[in-house]
Amino acid sequence: xxxxxxxxxxxxxxxxxxxxxxxxxxxxxxxxxxxxxxxxxxxxxxxxxxxxxxxxxxxxxxxxxxxxxxxxxxxxxxxxxxxxxxxxxxxxxxxxxxxxxxxxxxxxxxxxxxxxxxxxx
Length: 121
Ligand SMILES: [Zn+2]
Fold this sequence. Notes:
Elements: E1 5-12, E2 19-26, E3 35-37, E4 59-66, E5 76-84, E6 87-93, E7 106-108, H1 114-118
Parallel strand pairs: 1-3
Antiparallel strand pairs: 1-2, 2-4, 4-5, 4-7, 5-6
The protein binds zinc ion.
């Protein structure tokens, strides 16, 4: 229980229009209720016995779930946290772009996906 971390991103809700801190839960790295913001780096030291996935160079998409909007309660069950060379750079709706297998916490997505990151800021 509780074995996930959270990335907090200030974003505009596309349902109600409020700008607020959205919380994206994910299990990549060493998840244990840590809280990150954009610009932080993935912590691989926090719990060395419990790595989910591996450190990866370049741009990756991490399987995530966005918590409900605090204003209108809308939820995104399928969301993405974006990490570039180990640094959190964005988050947003998956929208069917990336398919994660049962054991995939993160996928390398390469240059192609840089465009998709732009809509997450
Ligand atoms: Zn909302």
